[in-house]
Write a structure and sequence with these properties.
Pfam families: SIMPL. This is Secreted protein. By secondary structure, this protein is an alpha+beta fold. It has two domains: 86 residues, Protein of unknown function (DUF541), domain 1 (Translation Initiation Factor IF3, 2-Layer Sandwich), CATH 3.30.110.170; 102 residues, Alpha-Beta Plaits (2-Layer Sandwich). Helices cover 29% and strands 42% of the residues. The strands form two sheets. It has a five-stranded antiparallel β-sheet with strand order 3-4-2-5-7, with helices on one face. It has a three-stranded antiparallel β-sheet with strand order 1-8-6. A hairpin with an 8-residue loop joins strand 3 and strand 4. The longest helix has 26 residues. The radius of gyration is 25 Å and the shape is elongated.
Length: 204
C-alpha cells in the first residue's frame, strides 16, 4: 500500500455569460400518427422561419429530439398520438429572449412549449484553468496541514483525479400564447465552473 495522504481540493470561478440558449418544443395530439406528425412538421417549419426572420442563423438552430408516441386516454375512448419536435436555439445577443419567445409563440400558438432557457459561457477553458489551479492550491494546503499534524513532510504527487461541474443560469417554463403576449426581459447572472481534484501526496 502506498504511504502518504490523499486529499480533495476544489476551486470555483465565475464569469459573465456570452451565449443564450433556448429550447423550444412543438407538440400536437391527433387521432392518428400521420396527422400528428404532419401538424408538428408544419408548425416546426413555421417556428424555424419565424426565428430565422429574427436573425437566427442556420448554424444557431438544431433539432435535439423528435418523438411520436401513443397517448392512452380514459377507458372506452379513442386512442390518440402525440408528436413532438424539440428545437435548440443559440444567440450571442443575451437580450433577445423575449423577442425570440414571442416569435415562436406567434408561429406555433398553443402547440409551443418552452423547455428551457440558459445563459452560458461558450469557451470555459480559461475559467477551468483558474479553477484547477485553485483546487490544487487547496489540496496542497490540506495535505501540508495533515502532514504536519502527523509529523511527516510532503513528497511528490503520485496521483491526481479530476471532476468538473458547471453552474449556468437556467430557467424552465411552460408556454401558452396568452402568457407571453409581451416581451419578457431576463437578466443574466454569472456562470460558474468548479473543478474538484483528488490528489495523493507521498511522504518525503
Amino acid at each position: 500500500m502506498d504511504t502518504g495522504v490523499t486529499v480533495v481540493g476544489s476551486g470555483r470561478v465565475s464569469g459573465a455569460p456570452d451565449v443564450l440558449r433556448v429550447t423550444f418544443g412543438v407538440e400536437h395530439f391527433a387521432p392518428d400518427v400521420a396527422s400528428a406528425v404532419a401538424r408538428v412538421g408544419d408548425r416546426t417549419d413555421t417556428v424555424i422561419a419565424a426565428l430565422r426572420a429574427h436573425g437566427i442563423e442556420e448554424s444557431q438552430l438544431g433539432t435535439s429530439a423528435v418523438n411520436v408516441f401513443q397517448h392512452y386516454r380514459e377507458p372506452g375512448t379513442d386512442v390518440g398520438y402525440q408528436a413532438s419536435h424539440t428545437i435548440q436555439v443559440e444567440s450571442k445577443d443575451l437580450s433577445r429572449f423575449g423577442a425570440l419567445l414571442n416569435a415562436a409563440v406567434d408561429a406555433a400558438g398553443n402547440n409551443l412549449t418552452l423547455n428551457g432557457m440558459q445563459f452560458d459561457i461558450e469557451d470555459k477553458s480559461e475559467l477551468l484553468t483558474q479553477a484547477r489551479e485553485l483546487a490544487f492550491q487547496q489540496a496542497r494546503a490540506k495535505a501540508e496541514h495533515l502532514a504536519g499534524l502527523a509529523g511527516f513532510s510532503l513528497g511528490s504527487v503520485s496521483a491526481i483525479s479530476e471532476n468538473q461541474n458547471q453552474f449556468p443560469i437556467h430557467r424552465a417554463y411552460s408556454a401558452s400564447k396568452a402568457a407571453f403576449d409581451s416581451a419578457i426581459n431576463v437578466v443574466p447572472g454569472d456562470s460558474s465552473v468548479e473543478v474538484t481534484l483528488e490528489v495523493h501526496f507521498a511522504w518525503a
